[in-house]
Design brief:
single chain, 174 residues, alpha/beta, Double Stranded RNA Binding Domain, five-stranded mixed beta sheet, 5 strands
Length: 174
Amino acid sequence: MAIEVLTFTLAMLAITAPPDPQLTRLPDIRDFQPDRDLSSYRTYAWNKNQAVQTANMANHLRIINAIQEQMKKRDYRIDTVRPEIRIQYRVQLQQRVRGTSTQQRSVWDDANQTVKIDVNTIKQAHFSLQFVDAESNFFLWQAEGTYPLGTPDRAEILINQAIEDLFKQFPSPE
């Protein structure tokens, strides 16, 4: 009897309680359509869950500024009260091994070849940029790319180039 009352009470709560929009629909990558028309959107804000993704705050601010500059070029404006789009970026640092080989004939024996393989590691940053509809939480657009890391004095130039390259994938209005 107690289980039936508890079940009935839970069922009634489920019927009468309005659904929380944040819990009913989570973003799903399958919702992504690369050719979606984004011309009806005009305002944006940063995702509430956007954390500092880089090792230092200066690079985080450089990324934010580069994204905001690209949005400004496309006539979007920031609106923290009622944004239409929420933006989130992610950066993942990667180290890759790269090998280059060269062959050289021996100076003493023409049939004997020497193969030399140079192996080194390169550091790269994998950027992911996602736009989500602020109201429905549907994916609107995303872009990804992997870019080389440079020296600290070139950080701003490289970040601006990487973000500009990501925005080349942005759907243009028809």
